[in-house]
Specification:
Length: 127
């Protein structure tokens, strides 16, 4: 059972590495990630460390726009639901506390917004 909160870059790395190991093995979202990240997993993980370090620890190491790489992916609500299920269970398994809860809220907000934007762009392209 988790006994501590997210408090360091080491914790962020543990969260990101554990989460993406599960993602890579997942039947629904694993193939999409593995195809997109082919040969670039280390680079992606480093980017995710910086992203979550900036959001949760307020150590500004990430710059960029997270949405554009996701815009053309063949994903829908079911993929985001699975992503959130894996993320939430990973956080809950590893950590407990204010920042752990913040991570889940931020992830849920991001999943909602990404799905909304992807649907918006798909519908705009059909017109």
């Amino acid at each position: 059972m988790a006994t501590q909160d997210i408090s360091s870059l080491g914790d962020i790395k543990l969260l990101v590495n554990t989460f993406y190991a599960k993602v890579q093995d997942d039947d629904l979202i694993g193939p999409i990630f593995n195809q997109k990240m082919l040969g670039r997993w280390p680079e992606h993980l480093e980017k995710m460390y910086r992203f979550w370090q900036t959001i949760l620890l307020e150590e500004h190491t990430y710059s960029g726009s997270p949405f554009p790489p996701h815009k053309q992916l063949p994903i829908d609500q079911a993929h985001f639901d699975r992503w959130m299920e894996i993320f939430t269970s990973t956080v809950d398994f590893l950590f407990v506390g204010k920042l752990a809860e913040e991570a889940k809220v931020r992830a849920a907000n991001m999943a909602y917004m990404f799905n909304y934007k992807i649907e918006y762009f798909r519908n705009a392209e059909k017109q």
